[in-house]
Structure formats: structure tokens, C-alpha cells
Amino acid sequence: MSESGNVKLLHAVEPERDHVRGADLSGGAVSVVYYGDFLCPYCRRLREVLLRLKASIGDRFSYAFRHFPNEHAHPGADFMARAAEAAAEQGRFWDMYDALFDKEPPITEDDARELARSIGLDMARFERDLASDAVRSRVAEDLAEAGRNGVSGTPTIFIDGIRYDGAWDYYSLLDVLERPVGERIQRSARVFASLPASGGLVLILAALAALALANSPLASSYYAFIRTPFGIGPSGSLLSLTIGEWFSEGLLAFFFLLVGLEIRRELTAGALTDRKAASLPVIAAIVASIVPALIYLLINRGGAVSGWSVPTATDIAFALGVLALLGDRVPPSLRVFVAAFAVVDDIVSVLVLAIFYPRNFEAAWLIAALAAIVVMFALNRGRIYATWPYAVIAVVVWFCLHSAGVHGALAGIALAAFLPTRPTPAAAPLLAQAATALAALEHAQRNEDVDDDPVLEWASRNLSAASERLLSPADRIEQAVAPWSAYLVLPLFAFSATGVGLSVDLSAPGAARILLGVILGLVIGKPLGVCTAAWAATRAHIARMPDGAGLRAFIGAACLCGIGDTVSLLMADQAFPTAQTEASIAKIGVLIGSLLSAALGATIILLGPSAPSRTEATSAP
User: Fold this and answer.
1) Sequential DSSP letters for 83-110
2) 97, 51 in Cβ contact below 8 A?
């Protein structure tokens, strides 16, 4: 649920390899890398902006050009890229670069050869280099690296190693390159957000802060804060909850919304669409939810058995974050398996919450919630694409579920199920609409009427309409909610849920059994369930192992599935609603078990061989 493509450039500028124009990077100059295509009209215009920026900023600015020839959109683009590289073999890359962009399109191969002759190249050597494997490989390497950086169109710009998604005009880029304080803060935030486990890191810090406060002289203030009543109406009314309850039942609805959207995406266009590919993570997730519960129940007796659900949930963010940190030792197919496994695991966790932990169940309110969901379904079928009706009804669903005694955060799943998606738009009408708006602006600029408010308003309205059509309401809501969920909702929930006093009395009846049951359920039960299910399913020929994943790597990934979800903390509260000591012990078990699972899984994978690097498989485009 992160941004598409890479925010951070995988490999910084290498002066000995990259084509760099401008200041010496060792002097602290602002560095721009852009992936371009010599036949792309937008790259042609960006080149003029970059030249103007270079003239304005001088020795504080440099930029590097990397090839991304889009042969499909611009036939002949690959030839032009090779022509520039052939010129580079004679030390004349930037001369050829300028000549190609100065030449008015269309540009043919003969035109490129004539341009090479005009800048004084040795034509015999130029022709040899043009056809050489070295030049072809050089272009192919840039193209492959662009794919790994999430580049899908030209120009794509990275400033100081961070993808730039703003406007391409001179003043917008100048604001960024001058490094104002606000831009530095925003850039630092994007760098942090681009880290594979940044959301998990914030979650950990929030949990550690809660643990520190709960075990300090400020413990009474901490508990007083999360237990402070807050809401509408008198104490005890339906909307009078404590702050901690609002964090776990109110704000957590946003997290469940994202989980639901991910489940929906995997079912319609992801790893769960193919039956063979989907069978293994589905079977593994179900079995891996049962085995930890059985291990817990084998250890615990009496009232403690209600905590059987605590070790059954896997945290998708932490698990995938650890896999990302392990780099090329994890084949892509194994990441897909873990993601699909965690999605199905989330479904199981949601069902467990809904079925086994209803509070003071009221059937009438549940019927009202179902009626509201039917209205949401009708809006979806009626192709109502405005988002506010769905948001309003989701609030109604939340209230009805809460009043029915079912966890209100599940309203996020209902909203995710019925948020409208749209068919992929036809590009031509949208391109015509955007081009018309831009042409109007360009005409106004030529006539020095750029301050003409009606033209600006009309162009802005049409550009906004064209851009909004590219994303469905579900996509827009996911993009808007994802950072809030990762950096506010889940940390606040963790802050309220993980404030566990570590001085709990483990000598209390059943305390040690609860702790041991949760830890063993996560560290042993989860990987045992995954591996057992995989063995049985593949032997029965109803599923297949992830492509390219060795046994060691698969076992390591199975161990990572023992990283407990934030839902595990919620289940601890639900399983022991009136026994704070038992709930605290279960939460401590989740924390310990998750740390052990992460360490064990990472160690097993690191001891194995690296997966083949994609750079080794680079071939010509």
C-alpha cells in the first residue's frame, strides 16, 4: 500500500558511467537524474527547462541523462539512444544529445547519421559502435535499471535520488532545486516513507514508547490518558468510548479499509486470481491459523483457553518489510506468496473477530448494518462514483456494528468491498482533453494573457477532470488513507494497545502457560502450519511451490509469517476483556514471539544463497 514505483533511486549518479552535465557532484551540487527518450516531445521540452535551470543555478546544479527509449510509442527511439551512445564512444555524447533534441521531428535514422557527421564524428567508427554489443548493452542496462526504479514513462525525474512527481515547468523545479526548508522536510519525509519498513519502524517506536511509559513513573498518566472517556452523550452511551477504544475500534477502521482493498485487489487482479497460484497461500493461511491455536490450547486450560486466537494473525507490513530488507536473497515469487498468505490470513482474522468476539450481541442493530451495506451495494451497482455517499454509509455501518456488539472497525471491510472501481479509461479522449487544455494555456502565454483567469480556470478544470479519471474512487481513497494508516492510525493503536506492564506476575495461575502458548504458537505453530500445508498441497497436486524459491528460503519465509499482527494485540484485549493481567501477558507473548520469528526467518534466509540478480539477466530491449 505504498506508492507505485520506487520513490528512491536505486543507484546514485556514477560520474564514471553516467552522462553528467553541470557541476561537480563532490561539491554538494543538486543532482538530477532523468530517464528520457530522444523522440519524446516532453523530454524535448524538459531539456529546455534544464538548460535554463543550469544557466540560473550555475555551479550548484548538475543533471544526468539515462536512456528509456519507448520503441512502442516512438518507433526509432532505440536507434537514437544507440546513436547517442555511439557518439559517447568518441567523447561527444552531449553534442549528439543537443543535436538530436535541436532537430525538429520527425527524425529518421539517416537524419541521425547526418547529425553525427555534422558534429565531426569519425563515421566509420560511429557505424561500428552503433551496431556493437557494447552500445546495445549500455542502452539495455539503462532500460533494465529504469524498470527496477519503477519508471514507466518519460521523462521520469529523480532529484537528489528521490523521485520528483511535481510539475515540469521552470519555476516549480527551481523551487525544489533551491532547497527551501519546506521542501527539505517534505523530501526527508519521502525518503523515510520509501524505506521498505518505514511504517513498521513507526509502529515499533510507538509500541516501545507505550512500553516505556507503562513501565515508568508516568504509568498512571499513560493509563489515565488511554482510559479517558471521549465521545457524544453521557458516559456509557453508545458513542461514549475511551480514547483507547476510539483508537482500536474507530481509527482501526481505516486500517481494515486498506486490508479490504488489498484483499479485493488480490481476488480480482492479483495473486489470488489464478487457481493454482492461489491455492498454496490460501491453504497455508488457513492451516497456519489452526496450528498455532491448537498449540496454545494444548498448553492452556480453564479460563485461559479464550486466548487461543492471539497467535493466529500475521502482520503483512512487518513480514514484507523484513523480506524487502533481505534484498536479492528472496525471489519475487516468494514475496508474492507471503503477500497473498497475509491477505488470506487477514480474512481469517476478520472472521475470527466477527464470529468469536461479539460484545452484547444485538441482532436488530446487525440487521440495520446489513441494510446499510445493501444500500452501499446498490450505489455500487448504480455506478455512483462520488465517494461521499459511501463514506457516510460506512459511518452508519460502523455505528450499527458497534451497537450490535460486533467490532465497528469491520465497517472498513464493508466499505472496501463496495467502493466503486471503473473500467480502464480510453487514453485517446483523455489525452485530447488534456492536450486541448494545455494548448489553451500555451496560446494564452504566447499572447501574454497568462493571467487570464477564465482561461486558467477552464484549463485547470479540464486537466483535473482528465487526471481524476485515471484513478477510480477506490484507488483515490487508498492513496489518501494509506499514509495516515501507516504513520498515524496503526501507531496510535499500537501506542494504546501495547502499553503493557512488564512487571506482571508470571507466578499467577496460568500466566506462564499463556505466555508460552502465544510464543510457541507464533514461533513454531505458524511456520509448522505453512510448511505442513505446502507439503500436503503439493503432494496432492492442488498447488505448487513459488517459482525459484528454494526449500531454505521458503522455510525462512514461513518463519516470518510468525510475526504477530496488530490484530493480535486487539485479540488479546477481546479474549481477556475483564482480565488485564492475562491480556498483558498475551501481548508480551506477541511481542516476544514476533521478535523471535523475525530473527529466525531472517537468519535462515541469510544463510542461504542469493537469488539470481536481474542485472545478470539484462538483455537488449
Assistant:
1) HHHHHHTTT-HHHHHHHHHHSPSP--HH
2) no
- Locate 473 and state its grid cell: 474512487
What nine digits make up the cell of 223?
Answer: 493509563
Strands 61-67, 19-22: pairing kind: antiparallel
Q: Cis peptide before 106, with omega less than 30 degrees from 0? A: yes
Report how far apart, in Å, the C-alpha atoms of 251 and of each of 119, 178, 304, 501 are.
64, 38, 29, 24
- Segment 92-108 shows an average pLDDT of 93
| Residue 1 pLDDT > 80 | no
Q: Give Cβ neighbours of residue 471 (< 8 Å, ≥ 6 apart).
A: 479
**Quick check: 547 and 271 in contact, CB under 8 A?**
no
Percentage helix, strand, coil for the chain under 3-state DSSP, each rounded to 5: 65, 5, 30
Element (DSSP H or E) covering residue 39: none
DSSP 486: I
d(CA 584, CA 554): 32
Predicted TM-score (pTM) of the model is 0.67
Closest Cα partner for 565 from 228, 289, 236?
289
Q: Where are the alpha helices (DSSP H) in 447-489?
A: 453-469, 473-484
Q: How many helices (H) and strands (E) does the chain have?
A: 27, 7
pLDDT of residue 374: 94
Report the alpha-carbon angle 179-181-185, nearest 5: 100
- In this prediction, what percent of the chain has a pLDDT beyond 90? 31
Please provide the distance, in angstroms rounded to a whole number, between the alpha carbons at the two ends of the chain: 30
Contacts of 327 (CB under 8 A, 6+ apart): 610
Rounded to the nearest 5°, which phi and psi values hold at 308? -60, -25
Instruction: Name the residue with higher pLDDT: 37 or 385.
Output: 37
Q: How many CB atoms lie within 10 A of CB 10?
A: 11
Is the model's pLDDT at 35 over the cut of 70? yes
Q: Is 321 helix (H, G, I), strand (E, B) or coil?
A: helix
Convert the pLDDT of each residue in 124-154 to its tens digit. 999 999 999 999 999 999 999 998 888 888 9
Q: Is 619 a residue whose pLDDT tops 50?
A: no
- Could you give the count of Cα atoms lying within 13 Å of 313 in the half-sphere of its Cβ? 27
What confidence score (pLDDT) does residue 620 get?
34
The kind and range of the H/E element at 35 are strand 30-36
Beta strands in 131-268 (DSSP E): 156-159, 162-164, 229-231, 240-242
Give the three-class secondary structure for 376. Answer: helix
Alpha-carbon distance 144 to 212, whole Å? 46
Task: Return d(Cα 224, Cα 21) in angstroms, integer.
Answer: 60
| Per-residue model confidence as pLDDT tens digits over 165-224 | 888 888 888 888 876 545 555 555 555 555 555 666 777 788 889 888 988 999 889 989
Query: 62 φ, ψ to 5°?
Result: -145, 155
Residue 407 three-state SS: coil
pLDDT greater at residue 579 or residue 373: 373
